[in-house]
Request: fold
Amino acid sequence: TTDATTGQKLLDMLKGRDNAIRAIARSTTGPLAPADREKLKVIVGDAFDYDELSRQSLGKYWAERTPAERKEFAGLYRRLIEKSYADPKLYRKVEKIAYDGAEATGSTATVKTTVLYKGEKSAIHYTMLRSGEKWLIADMVIDDVSVVRNNRQNFYKEIAKSSYAGLVAKVKKKLAEETAAGAKASAKTY
Reply:
């Protein structure tokens, strides 16, 4: 059975999160102050279930991981999400978000939104799981493309090409390059 009250709570939660993100992202037209950038990362980062994202994205390779490897991978996944979805430019382009509905059954839910930006529409459906009293994002389907499925394909290719260790090294290298580029950009603005 669908729980309408939970569905409304999820819609309200997502609206509140989106409004908080957009307020920070639009607080300036230039680069965000480091404190605002961190606030944005926390709001975006705290919305996801990284163990579930990691488990689904690694698929058959998740079972082979030790608890320490799983924890490390979930931490890397969080940094990837923050990098991808805590970019203020992404939210400055958004003209309107329509909250089309939510369906909740037990500890799973789907929240449907439509995002309008620069005259284009994008359907974003969030798969959410209840973790205690909190609901967390376990996948996003953006215009019929699952983030988890897309990542799984890319992760499997990298593991087949090199190894699990090779995948982790590649992710770490990508994150380090972008952190270094961000530090250089920040240094130039001061």
Confidence is low (pLDDT under 50) at residues 183-190. Strands lie at 94-105, 108-117, 120-131, 134-142, 145-146. DSSP finds seven helices and five strands in the chain.
